[in-house]
Amino acid sequence: MSKISTDLREATFLLIQYNSLAIIIGGLAGALSFFFPLFAYLHGAIIGLVVLEKKTREALIVGIGAAAIALFMAFSSINILGPHKVDVVLPLLLTLWLPNFVSMLILRASRSLTVTFLIVGFFIVLFVVGTHSVADNMSLWWKKWLEQHISLVPGATVQGFVNEGALELMDGFVAMFFEASLICTVLLARKWQSFLNQATTFRTELSSLKLPRILTGLIVILGILITVEILPGPGSVWVDLLMVAIMLYFFQGVAALYAILASKKLSGWWLILLYIALFSAPTLIIKGVALIGIIRSLVDLNIFSSSDNIHA
User: Fold this and answer.
1) Environment class of residue 200 by beta-carbon count within 10 Å: exposed (0-12), middle (13-18) or buried (19+)?
2) What percent of the chain has a predicted confidence (pLDDT) above 70?
3) Which of 121, 167, 202, 240 has the most CB atoms at less than 10 Å from its CB?
4) What is the reported pLDDT for 310?
C-alpha cells in the first residue's frame, strides 16, 4: 500500500470518527462549489460516505450541518457571486443533499446499486413531472431562464440555443445533468467506502448492476411510440422521460463494459478511453453506451459475467 493511500485512508477515518470534522469539511466543500462547481460532488460524497458508515441520526446531523454552512457562506457572498450564479449552483447542491441522502440510505440497506439507481431515477422523474406541471410552455420558461443566466457561459447566446432547437430539450438535458451528478456522487461515495474498508465489494456491485427487464421493455416501447409519433416529440414530458432513461442506461452500459473487462481480467482503467471519447462526441457515446445498457437488461450473455480480478 502506498504512503498516499495510507494517508488518505487515515484522513477518511478521522472524517468518519468526528462528526464536527465531517460537517466543517463537507460545508466548506459545499461553499466552494459556488465558486468551483466540482466541489459540489465532494460535498455530496462526504455526506454519502457518512450515511454509509454511521447511524441515520448522526448522518442527518452531519448532512444538515454541512448544508447549513454551505448555504450560509454562499448567501453571505452573494454580492461577490451574483444571484444568477447562486441560482445555478444551488439546485445542484440540493440534488446532492436530500435525494443523495435518501439514495445512500437505500444503498446502505439494500447493498444493491440496481435498487439505488431506481431510486435515483424516481427522484429525477419527479423533477421532470414537476417542471412540466408548473410550466405551461417549457421552451418559453427555459428561454426566460437562459436570458437571465446566459452571461455565465462565455460565448453562448440564447439565439444559439433557439437555432439549434435545444430549447425544447432543455428540461431533459437539465434532468440528465442532475441524474448524472447524483449517480456519480453515489458511486464516488460507495467507491470511497470500499477504499476505506479495503474491500472489493464495489467491483462486484458495479459489475452486477442490471435494471429490471420489464422497465427496459417499457422504455423501448416509449422510444418506439415517440419515434412513430404516436406520442408527442421534443418539448413533451415523454421525450424528457426518455432522456432520463437514456442517462440511466448509459451508466448501466458503463457497468456492463466494466463487467466485460472483469471477465477478461483487464484493468478498469481501460474505460478512460470511453471517457475521453465522451468529451469529443457526447451524444453519440451516451446513446451507444445506453444501448449496451439496454442489451444488458434484455439479454443474458456470458460476456457480462463479472470477476473480482479487475483492478480499479
Assistant:
1) middle
2) 87
3) 240
4) 39
What span, in angstroms and rounded, lies between the C-alpha atoms of 40 and 185?
A: 9
Dump pLDDT digits (tens) for 101-112. 999 999 999 989
pLDDT at position 12:
83
Enclosing domain of residue 255: 200-312
Pairwise CA distance, residues 295 & 60, whole Å: 38
Place of cell 461577490: 80
- The values of phi and psi at residue 66, to 5°, are -65, -40
Same domain, 257 and 157: no
pLDDT in tens, 248-306: 999 999 998 888 887 777 666 777 888 888 888 888 999 999 999 999 998 876 555 54
Q: Return the ∠ at Cα 114 (arms to 23 and 65), rounded to 5°.
A: 10
CA 162 to chain centre: 27
Residue ranges of the chain with pLDDT lower than 70? 1-4, 77-88, 151-155, 199-200, 266-268, 301-312
233 Cβ contact partners less than 8 Å away, ≥ 6 residues apart: 226, 239
158 and 288 both lie in a single domain: no
Q: Do residues 160 and 222 both lie within one domain?
A: no
From CA 66, how far away is CA 59, in angstroms rounded? 10
Task: Tell me: do 54 and 161 sit in the same domain.
Answer: yes
Check residue 232 and give left, alpha or beta (phi > 0: left; psi -120 to 50: alpha).
beta
Q: Give which of 292, 91, 256 is closest to 174, Cα–Cα.
A: 91
